[in-house]
Amino acid sequence: MRSAAFKRVESTQMNIKKKAYALLIERKASIKKAYLKYNTEARSPVKKAFYILRLNFAYYILRDRSLSKYNGGSGRPYSKGPESALSLRETPEKLAKMLSEYDAVSFDIFDTLIFRPFSKPSDLFHIAGAEAGLLNFAQTREYCERKAREKKFKSEKTYEIDIDDIYEYMGEYAGTSYLQAKEKELEAEAELCYANPYLKRVWQLLRETGVKIYVISDMYLKREFLEEILRKNGFEGYERLIVSNECKSSKFDGKLYEIAKTYMGEGKHAHVGDNEKSDVINGRAHGFFPFGVKNINLSGGSFRPDGMSRITGSAYAGIVNGKFHCGLYGLSLPYEYGYAYGGIFVLGYCNYIRKIQISLGADKILFLARDGELLKKIYDKLYPQADTEYFLWSRLAAGKLCFEENTLDFMRRFVYHKSNGNLKAEEILEQADLSQLIPQCPLKNTLVNKKNYKMLSEYILINKDGIIRAYENQRKGAEIYFNKKLSGSRRVLAADAGWAGSGAAAIGTLAKKWVPGTEVIGVIAGTNDSFNEQPDASEALMQSGRLYSFCFSQRHNRDIYLTHNSASGHNIFFEALLGSEQPSLKGFDKSGEPVFCENERNGVNVSEIHRGAEDFCDDYIKAFKKYPYMLDISGSDAYGPFLSAIRDKNRYFGTVFGGYSFNTGVGTGESPIRSQIH
Prior knowledge:
- The chain is α/β, with parallel strands linked by helices and about 675 residues long.
- The chain contains 30 helices and 16 strands.
- Helix 17 links the parallel strand 8 and strand 9.
- The longest helix is centred in the middle third of the chain and has 28 residues.
């Protein structure tokens, strides 16, 4: 038995450790976050102590408050060109030709031949935990693997274990309820693992040359299971799979290479893998010529947002990293913008619209032009049974059609917002289809500014009755169009980008008169921000349940609401993403046919942006088809990539959009986007 004195010493040591932990780790959130990430792998006490000192030195002496270098990267987007160019390598044909010159070639499996759709591969454990209904399973699973390796080393002098060893320890440590997660983990591995498209092509070409192929892996999954994953993803025709848990040796200690050579025979051997230590350095040390491939998550991790939720953020980053850094694709800036910024937003927004549709029992969804084109395409792909319409609409058309019901909004959009000294009164009236008022206008050839705009407003009010008559044919045509699109619907959602919800409000106002019995409820990506002249414009509709906002409002995600700034171009980034190549709606003729603005050109490469966003949605949906709850992407996560770019002073947006022009007002010409970004 231990003496009382020994127990007192032990107690004193524990108290010192607790105090040191509180002082050096617990006190600062960023230090604790970085340390917990570091501590997920087995480390010696000395290494842990030195790491803690490094964190404190960086925080207090170097004043690196975010410790981004230590907790996963800067979270800043790459702004010097296409990110995919950083990892673009020789063609698969060229690499296959080089490998064919060897007598045998071996490949690593995970992060080389096979990817998981997560930035941290062990985040797959979260899926297993969700399927098993277990709290904090992922962290428990990682801990038990670490302890199982330590236990194996004590008994057999090897750290190599299989999944049965892990779950045997899991049952002892966590309880028998955790044993059920083993099958869920294996199901998730089988379902989520996918082929590296670059090396899949290399593999196919190499097989045609007749070179003998081997697979070598440091892994706890059993050989038979790994063989099935390889087969499912198209990696067949190899000589043998050599796995560490079966051989009780690893690439990390180098001994697995010696075992592999007994199967591969004499000759020149090449090895392909992503780990600098295990695959490159140790491979060379044991007589293999290494061909290193980049680890996709190490290559792209520093460019992904660091403020997203753990599971969604990891899934998003893993899929983007896999696309941009597998080495196969040289992608354009607009495509990358659509893929990395548009896809997660569109996917989350569509799922949000679906939730609102179900909760309110809406029988139709209107995706308002032009921001609704991409949204409708993805929504129809996700929910093909839904009744959706692409509804032609614009602020220009709304202002004219609602002139009688909302004269104030007309004045705000056509007069006040244009009173910046750039347009003459006659130009403003022409844009509003009121050229008949030009001859008698007191400001006829005068530039309208903040000093004289009220004079133009008063002139319009004096002629209100004549304006109503001038718009009569357009209103008749619009009524025909409304009945065509809305007749028979009881409750309709009108989905738009934002920002005050004026599109849905205008449609709702007109629908009351033209399609009685039809209720219109608005859904927007975000409201007016705190910097807007009318930050409260949509609050009454939000409060009463006539308008819903996905990403932010005064009512939720206020950190985003207080950061998003339309004056700095932030609205444009969404509108450029969702915009259409179709010109904007000018109005309707008296027969109900749409009339579009002439000579309008959208400078942004819409088709490439949309293609990128669609591809991300396809890749994400395919990856998680068995786990539909992964589509539940919050507004803050959907906004996460935008937020990281905004916090980087819009440098990325300047790179993507700086050379383009964009229509920022009602009926106005184009203006450079770069002038809006600051």
